[in-house]
């Protein structure tokens, strides 16, 4: 029995080290441990019951709300009957309180300190105080003493106090592993009991509630609580226990706990209605609580062990994801930096060569967006008969052309080619933006998760990648402009020679005619102009010739612009996105590298927290394994 309670005490001490309690947003262990939670109305005798179990006066006393924070009380039975009893607080480790009046004062002082730290506006706080009492005269037991419940705020108490106390207690008793010790004065109607009301709310079948009747000795003359103790009035699965605590006169008269126990035994033995009942007295209550706690612990241990092992595995995975501690030697830092750069480059390359987030988006620019943009260009405005006539006339100047308006042809073609420039340059910018978005995706991939630890390095990688992509964008811009300018700089005369030859009477009919198509898709040699006036027919032929030439160049641009962009932007980005950064890093000294991989304080704190939790849970697992 001692080993079992000792095990739970150790596990609850681990909870204390973890800062884990019933109110923790993500309780790790506390809610898995069977815990006795003492609830009762204000002045129900709740604190007196605890002091009787401990055998010492150590709790604050007074009227109204005396207990203003939950008190997690661990009782540890020592082997030496001559050893001095003492208490230790979790907030003052290593300091032994051998004077129990000092324990009372420390509970009051720590409560005030905590409430002041919280702003000084609250009367109560849900954050617990942890106290361990070592004595040869106590059972191995852990209890949580809750602030007393109330129905009506008294003078000096805020109107919200009723709900605050109710919510606080409910948080501690709602867990299926909480054993509810419902303290109720026997001289009051059970139907009005605050403790029983709450127990009924969270434990409607009474499966985890133990009832305690106090003030049995001051019940109205002619009344007793025998039927309650026998379970006839209100049945609880784990029954009721009646106790007689010291009255205020006894406390003022400094009655010892030993004498109080003797007086309690004498009372129950002297009353015929209680003489044959076993479930009376503080000694019986302490033994019942200890035995009940042991039974609950034994039932829960396998599931607790399983839960701890699962949590350990989860924390180990989280710790691995956060990475190990950073070495600050130059070699180690340089190796880590270059390694992270290479991981990022591989992630970037994988996404570029991959599906919808990378390669497909680039292909979409070439196959859809660039084509749509070029097909929507206003070529027809250039090719209207009115514009053709105006351009031809302006190109000839004061000397009209003799045979073909060559200068006019050139001007019309140049005007058409100039339209191709913007869609081609827009395609460069679209691919540039896609590559920048891939950089963002790459630094947040699982293989680059370590970058989250190093804010400075991550920023440097993103900035350097952006700089590389901007340089490559300028290279692509220059090449595409050159492609457009090349088409305007030199017109393919063979195209027009083919047209002249095909249209001449001397053309060999055995030779197939060249297939030239206008921008509208019409076959140049199947068009008829005899339905037009001679002057319009002449202009329309010029317009169709220019249109057919532009159609050829448009096709060439749709083929060569993507090649130019891939050659000058995509391929170099895949081959050396962070090459400049890696060369720069290789020349950095130790202080510069340390600044570069200065780990985020948040990540470091997160790793330390997980490591601490992992260590404590591994300790808990060993304790359970040793016991089992």
UniProtKB/TrEMBL annotation:
PROSITE patterns: G_DYNAMIN_1, G_DYNAMIN_2, GED. GO terms for molecular function: GTP binding; GTPase activity; microtubule binding. One of its GO terms (cellular component) is membrane. The keyword Nucleotide-binding applies. Residues 30-302 form the Dynamin-type G domain. CDD domains: DLP_1. It comes from the Eukaryota. Belongs to the TRAFAC class dynamin-like GTPase superfamily. Dynamin/Fzo/YdjA family. This is Dynamin-related GTPase. It comes from Chlamydomonas schloesseri. The lineage of its organism: Eukaryota, Viridiplantae, Chlorophyta, core chlorophytes, Chlorophyceae.
